[in-house]
Write a structure and sequence with these properties.
Blueprint: H1 3-20, H2 25-67, H3 88-93, E1 155-158, E2 163-166, H4 180-191, H5 197-205, H6 213-222, H7 228-241, E3 244-254, E4 257-266, E5 269-275, H8 280-288, E6 295-298, H9 299-309, H10 313-325, E7 329-332, H11 334-345, H12 350-367, E8 376-379, E9 391-394, H13 396-404, H14 411-436, H15 440-453, H16 461-471, H17 474-477, H18 491-506, H19 513-531, H20 536-544, H21 553-562
Parallel strand pairs: 3-8, 8-9
Antiparallel strand pairs: 1-2, 3-4, 4-5, 6-7
Helix pairs in contact: 4-20, 7-19, 7-21, 8-12, 9-10, 9-12, 13-14, 14-15
Length: 563
């Protein structure tokens, strides 16, 4: 029986039930269970159909690789669920006023570099012609041409000192065979234009720039060391610019291994850090821009373990004795902590050992002064983000996608699902309004409305289960009522992750950890320049020239945040 036949049959059943009039409670309950059973069977059928389609596409891809003589290649991953579960249309329908699409170019005044007169041939003018005001027609153009410089470096020799004195090259031209302008252009083509190294080489070859593939790779990776300080300063300034931060991660490949690119951002900056893991310790290392987190053992570590991790009393006592023997407070690096716990646990009690590690790393982060500590972290519901900060704000868009994934086939379930989603996004809109003009009375009213909305029971089991799960996240979803500056969604960090995903489409992976670090540094600087309305090319050029007037992104972030 096809899906259309099932839907037609259910519509007929609903019609007959409507004609039958009120039914006994037992009959209503039995019918409700049967209809929910149909929903479960239909959902299972849809999952099986999608899995069959995925396997067919995977098999077809393998056949294509075999015919192309490349059986060793790993077949491309096929999406397991291509259905669009976006809530954008429904949310837009609830907005009071749509923002018009604006052309950003209309806000920028084009600088004039040259003025050329366009006279009228006097022979074509009648005798009574009077000269009027000239009309200005601005045409944008660009020059791309090589500019090779031969520096005549003076040399002097002192016989008495037996020493050669040489003249110095100007700043920006003393870093090898390529000047600051060319190196800045190469960086911009890679990290602004998302071009591969090969295509950058082909582009430059068209303009008679002689640069080898090795030199090109060295510029794209070796130059990153000059921007390490600025990279860290961007993180510190960004963390200081708002009381909340947004975070997400996306997959990455480094030297053929599966890694993860972490994104930390707000409206003023975007910070990237690629790590081998995405567990809680990796996230803590990202928040501090360190290779690995430090670990602090003191009374607060013990308190956190008792409140959140519930480790056995035996290990609580061991930790109490250890802290007491160290004077009540000790901070260790990753190597010393690993050695300490190896000596105590060995291969035993993995969960307890992990809990102690995580609690010590969390307390070390909260008490360090190297970077500002985040007050509110806007993220998804992944476990590695919990307990790091005082407050966690979950993304309403992520939560709403779970509702959009439901595909009811029973008419009464479709009606209940559609009606509840309208109420869901209407409540979301009122939360957005609250952020613009918060007040204690309005916050209390929104809390009561939340409890009422997510206590709804519809008789559609899948929807009711999802509603109860949202109710269980009440505090995290309503963080905005205490911290109105925190956004209701995590779209900004998802857009940051999309940048890495598009980069991955061009360059499948970084060939080394050093290359991944360079990618993080330059992607951070380019995306932050974009948020600060700065030219990334001009920024790179100024810093490579070591100009005293080179803009500091950290200063720009601080200025923008203070407005």
């Amino acid at each position: 029986m096809s899906g259309l036949d099932v839907k037609a049959m259910l519509v007929e059943v609903e019609t007959l039930l409507g004609l039958a009039g009120p039914l006994p409670p037992e009959a209503e309950s039995a019918i409700e269970k049967l209809l929910n059973g149909i929903e479960l069977l239909t959902a299972d059928r849809m999952e099986l159909t999608q899995e069959v389609q995925r396997l067919r596409e995977l098999l077809e891809r393998k056949k294509q690789l075999k015919n192309a003589g490349d059986e060793s290649s790993e077949p491309c991953a096929v999406p397991t669920n291509p259905t669009d579960h976006s809530s954008e249309k429904r949310r837009r329908a609830l907005r009071k006023k749509q923002r018009r699409s604006l052309d950003r170019r209309s806000f920028k005044e084009v600088p004039i570099h040259e003025i050329i007169a366009c006279p009228v041939d006097p022979a074509t003018l009648p005798p009574d012609a009077v000269r009027g005001t000239a009309e200005s027609v601005v045409v944008q153009d660009i020059r791309i041409e090589p500019h090779n410089i031969c520096f005549q470096v003076e040399t002097w020799y002192s016989p008495s000192e037996k020493k050669v004195f040489r003249g110095t090259l100007p700043s920006g031209y003393d870093q090898g065979d390529f000047g600051a302008n060319l190196r800045a252009l190469i960086l911009s083509m890679k990290y602004c234009g998302n071009m591969s190294e090969r295509k950058i080489g082909e582009f430059l070859e068209n303009f008679n720039v002689q640069v080898s593939a090795g030199s090109l790779s060295n510029i794209l990776t070796g130059t990153a060391a000059a921007f390490e300080r600025e990279y860290h300063d961007v993180l510190v300034a960004g963390l200081s610019s708002t009381p909340y931060q947004q975070t997400d991660d996306t997959s990455a490949r480094v030297a053929g291994q599966a890694w993860h690119t972490h994104i930390l951002c707000n409206p003023f900056y975007t910070f990237y850090s690629t790590r081998s893991g995405k567990d809680r310790l990796s996230v803590l290392a990202v928040l501090q821009n360190r290779e690995s987190p430090s670990f602090r053992f003191n009374a607060r570590t013990l308190e956190l373990l008792r409140q959140e991790f519930s480790i056995p009393q035996k290990w609580q006592q061991w930790l109490t004795d250890f802290v007491g023997g160290c004077g009540g407070d000790v901070e260790l690096d990753a190597v010393l902590t690993r050695g300490l716990l190896d000596g105590v646990f060995g291969d035993r009690c993995v969960q307890t050992r992990t809990a102690i590690e995580h609690a010590a790393a969390i307390i070390a982060y909260r008490q360090q002064t190297r970077v500002p500590v985040i007050q509110v972290l806007v993220c998804d519901d992944a476990g590695q983000f919990k307990l790091l900060t005082d407050h966690v704000a979950l993304c309403w868009i992520h939560d709403g996608r779970h509702y959009e994934r439901l595909s009811p086939v029973v008419p009464r379930h479709q009606q209940a699902w559609d009606g509840f989603l309208d109420r869901y996004w209407d409540y979301y809109r009122r939360l957005q309004d609250y952020r613009g003009s918060p007040s204690p009375s309005q916050a209390e009213a929104l809390r009561e409305e939340f409890d009422q909305l997510f206590s709804t029971r519809t008789g559609y089991d899948a929807l009711d289960k999802r509603i109860s799960m949202t109710l269980g996240k009440r505090e995290e979803l309503l963080t905005v009522l205490k911290h109105p500056s925190a956004p209701l969604h995590n779209n900004v960090s998802e857009l940051g992750a999309r940048v890495s995903a598009r980069r991955r489409d061009v360059s499948l992976h970084s060939r080394s950890v050093h290359g991944a670090r360079a990618m993080d540094i330059f992607t951070t600087l380019v995306q932050t320049c974009r948020k600060q309305s700065q030219s990334a090319y001009a920024y790179f050029r100024a810093h490579l020239r070591r100009s005293t007037e080179a803009p500091s992104l950290a200063t720009l972030i601080q200025s923008a945040a203070s407005v």
